[in-house]
Design a protein that fits this description.
Largest sheet: 9 strands, mixed
Shape: globular
Number of domains: 1
Strand content: 25-35%
CATH topology: L-amino peptidase D-ALA esterase/amidase
Helix content: 25-40%
Number of strands: 13
Structural class: alpha+beta
Radius of gyration: 17 Å
Distance between the termini: 28 Å
Length: 241
């Protein structure tokens, strides 16, 4: 089943079944922590696929990268695809677009926080891990797309700004770690994707820190998406206690 999405963003995207498919409109530079196509690479599509809360224990896809490559093939979107996974339903997808001085940034996000953690917490034991994964696991997947052409350091800086913003919003909303002792800085399975134009195809940006327009746009788009995503997550949890 294909469902066209009406939103404030202009990048072509649709939900096919349980998968968000983003068409980047050509070859783009991408930096991500995605299980499929992670690191620096070129890509033409990004997918965010909803999975069962506990795939590693029910045996559906012990190899996420392989599973996502197969899914991309089934969707006929080719090899140049970056793929994410989440237990958050695609009905909770939030998007945002901000622009200034000919530059724009678009954010696509799915937000769940039942897997929330505070950076620096010691990893849970196997027994505790099973306890955590016995309920629907939450993940914050952030996909950022811009018409700017970012240097390698600017792409890394974009990841930094996105992460700072996400953590700031979680702290503003006093989201607790699953241990209940500290406020969360993220979840144990978060992922981020940054996609930009090739050199010569968009405004060149060597830096993307908090003192730049690029950094400000990234911060605003992520803050908008994570805030609205948290509201949707709370509503979903109330309906599915």
């Amino acid at each position: 089943m294909k469902k066209e999405i009406r939103s404030r963003v202009r990048t072509r995207h649709q939900v096919i079944g349980h998968t968000l498919v983003i068409n980047l409109g050509g070859r783009r530079r991408v930096l991500s922590s995605a299980p499929q196509g992670g690191g620096f690479r070129f890509a033409s599509h990004i997918i965010n696929h909803q999975v069962d809360a506990n795939p590693s224990m029910n045996g559906h896809f012990p190899d996420p990268a392989r599973y996502l490559r197969k899914l991309a093939s089934q969707l006929s979107i080719g090899y140049y695809t970056v793929g994410l996974m989440t237990a958050v339903p695609m009905t909770q997808l939030v998007t945002s677009r901000v622009s200034a001085e000919g530059l724009w940034v678009e954010c696509f996000a799915t937000v769940g926080v039942t897997n929330a953690v505070c950076a620096g917490e010691w990893p849970p034991s196997l027994a505790h891990r099973k306890e955590i994964y016995s309920t629907r696991v939450g993940t914050i997947n952030l996909i950022l797309i811009t018409n700017g052409s970012l240097s390698t350091s600017a792409m890394v800086g974009a990841v930094q700004i996105a992460t700072e913003t996400k953590t700031g919003v979680l702290r503003d909303h006093t989201i607790p770690s699953w241990k209940g002792k500290d406020l969360a800085t993220g979840t144990g399975t978060d992922a981020v994707v940054i996609a930009c134009r090739l050199r010569g195809e968009g405004p060149l940006h060597t830096y993307s820190g908090t003192h730049t327009i690029m950094g400000a746009l990234i911060g605003r788009s992520v803050a908008d998406c994570v805030s609205r995503g948290l509201a949707k997550a709370r509503k979903w949890q109330e309906m599915h206690p």
